[in-house]
Design brief:
40% of the residues lie in helices and 19% in strands. It is of the alpha/beta class. The strands form two sheets. An eight-stranded mixed sheet has the order 1-2-4-3-5-12-6-11, sandwiched between helices. Strands 8-9-7-10 form a four-stranded antiparallel sheet, with helices on one face.
């Protein structure tokens, strides 16, 4: 294994070489701001870059038209890197447009640059091994990696790396909540709501009764469970008894088994509402993800490289740009070194991958303190110079971590050993029907 100064200098050189291409890609993807499962040009932008750097690109990946896999090298070990590129609604420069309110214009690019740097390293040093970039669409709808995993993705890796833009610098060891995304469709019968209401069977009544039942259920679930819902369709006119309604639920918990149990009880609420209104109900689990399987060895690898390269530094011009956007202009300048971390309430489909390979990752500051995610103010910051600086720092951290795993068997064996022990007796269930197509 190289000494840190030698390693740092080499990785800096390898990543610096890609800086112009990285900035162009991040800017292009920011401008495209494509919705989940429609990231055609965004995904092609990254895939073309990887193909031009010696990666063998498989396009598309199974049922996912904007998913792909890119490989470079051969043999073992195999190290994966996760990339995303989807945008969010109502986060664009103009109202009701898509924008990168979560910084995915940076995310997919940094992972790609890290993969190229690691690929160049193993070729330069003549080290056996393979680097695999996973182009993952629709993270914001928690669909991409769930369906890719169902269809055989993320298998055969010895370890995998991920990252996310943030307002803080930290190790992503604890992940978020497991989740079910479930659609309930009720079908009844129309009638004149005033002249012959007795002839109708209201699908809207069924949705409302179900939601009332679920609200009573909230009293009887564990404290860490979160249940959210929206009625997507509830009829067209007040004087027509609605024959169709659609209500969409998210069920979250820090534990996958708890999600399964609460989802089971919500299904009973739906069946009870259908029985009470003499309607029919159709249930579709749109997606489902696991909570994170921690891997402390992987967290340590990433932390070591984060400390080696340090957090991105903000200057007076960065602070002035933030103030121009209405922020105080303060930026994180330290690394949170807590390897245990606190499990989050939100969810990410990265966590499903953690059950298929040892997963390590980090958050790198790309926006200033106090910036709200999934918001226009976030999207406006992730095209600024500080955000690009954070992106390139993430590339260095990912490249350094991948190189450690590729070149130091002791580091990799520790991560794999921890993973094998934690998954003993576990059998991966994709949780989604085999032939079901992903929905945005």
């Amino acid at each position: 294994m190289m000494k840190n100064p030698e390693k740092k200098a080499l990785i800096r050189k390898l990543v610096k070489k890609e800086e112009k291409a990285a900035h162009e890609m991040a800017s292009r993807i920011w401008e495209l701001a494509e919705p989940p499962l429609k990231e055609r040009e965004s995904s092609k932008t990254i895939a073309r870059y990887l193909a031009g750097n010696g990666f063998r690109v498989t396009w598309p990946f199974k049922m996912m038209p904007t998913a792909f896999m890119a490989e470079r090298g051969s043999g073992k070990p195999v190290i994966g890197l996760l990339g995303e590129y989807d945008a969010l609604p109502d986060c664009g420069e103009k109202a009701s447009t898509y924008g990168h309110g979560c910084g995915h214009n940076l995310l997919g690019v940094a992972s790609a640059v890290g993969a190229v740097a690691a690929g160049n390293f193993i070729e330069k040093k003549k080290i056996p091994g393979k680097v695999v970039y996973w182009g993952c669409p629709a993270e914001e709808t928690l669909v991409g990696k769930a369906y890719m995993a169902r269809d055989g993705g993320f298998r055969g890796m010895d370890a995998c790396l991920c990252w996310h833009p943030s307002s803080v610098n930290s190790i992503r060891s604890s992940g978020g909540s497991a989740l079910d995304s479930v659609m309930f469709e009720f079908r009844g019968k129309t009638s004149h709501a005033a002249a012959s209401p007795e002839s109708g069977r209201s699908a809207l009544d069924a949705a409302i009764i179900m939601d009332v039942s679920v609200n009573y259920l909230r009293e009887h679930v564990p404290e860490d469970v979160r249940i959210h819902s929206v009625i997507c369709d509830g009829g067209k006119a007040p004087n027509v008894v609605p024959e169709y309604s659609r209500i969409w639920y998210y069920v979250r918990s820090k534990n996958r088994d708890q999600v399964d149990n609460v989802s089971r009880r919500i299904l009973l609420c739906a069946k009870g509402a259908a029985a009470a209104t003499e309607t029919e109900v159709k249930v579709t689990r749109l997606t489902a993800i696991y909570n994170r399987l921690r891997n402390q060895a992987m967290a340590q690898v990433v932390l070591d490289n984060f400390q080696l390269f340090g957090p991105p530094a903000a200057g007076p011009a960065d602070r002035e740009r933030a103030r121009a956007l209405g922020k105080k202009g303060n930026f994180a300048d330290k690394i949170n070194t807590d390897l245990d971390g606190r499990q989050g309430r939100a969810s990410t489909d990265d966590d499903t991958v953690s059950w298929l390979a040892p997963l390590g990752g980090c958050s790198v500051a790309c926006v200033c303190n106090g910036t709200v995610g999934h918001n226009r103010e976030y999207a406006m910051q992730v095209k600024l110079p500080f955000a690009y600086r954070g992106m390139m720092r993430a590339s260095e951290i990912l490249a350094g971590s991948a190189i450690d795993l590729l070149s130091d068997r002791k580091i990799l064996d520790k991560a794999v050993g921890e993973f094998v022990a934690a998954t003993k007796g576990f059998r991966f269930d994709p949780l989604i029907p085999k032939k079901q197509r992903p929905c945005p």
